[in-house]
Amino acid sequence: xxxxxxxxxxxxxxxxxxxxxxxxxxxxxxxxxxxxxxxxxxxxxxxxxxxxxxxxxxxxxxxxxxxxxxxxxxxxxxxxxxxxxxxxxxxxxxxxxxxxxxxxxxxxxxxxxxxxxxxxxxxxxxxxxxxxxxxxxxxxxxxxxxxxxxxxxxx
Length: 155
What we know:
The protein is built from 4 helices and 6 strands. The chain has helices spanning 21-29, 51-61, 76-86, 105-115; strands spanning 8-14, 38-44, 66-70, 91-94, 128-129, 135-137. Strand 5 and strand 6 form a beta hairpin. It is globular, with a radius of gyration of 16 Å. The mean pLDDT is 90.
């Protein structure tokens, strides 16, 4: 264990995410970052599919690294806020239930924060894939429909 490294809490809101939620959680747990320094905090926002059963199974097999909370459907913002309130990490990272983090994401972001102490927010681009894992847009930030209201400068 390296106590000098910050603890990271991946915050995951999920609603009816049975198709991808297990892969998303695995992508966080499989980061090249010390396992004892990274947790996944999942808020099931009233799922009516098999998401709760999948989350229970994953949490049981993750040796305390995945915490699951449930609430009535209140929307993405409410679920993220609840996960953040329960997080034990020094740093928070958002992980959507249909995303998969590249293996070195956490380590690279921590290295950047350590090298640039004036930085308080780190974000990156993402590759958009379909349900089969095929790339349909290499860069979300430069794609046909870029995100609206880029607010990083204001943050």
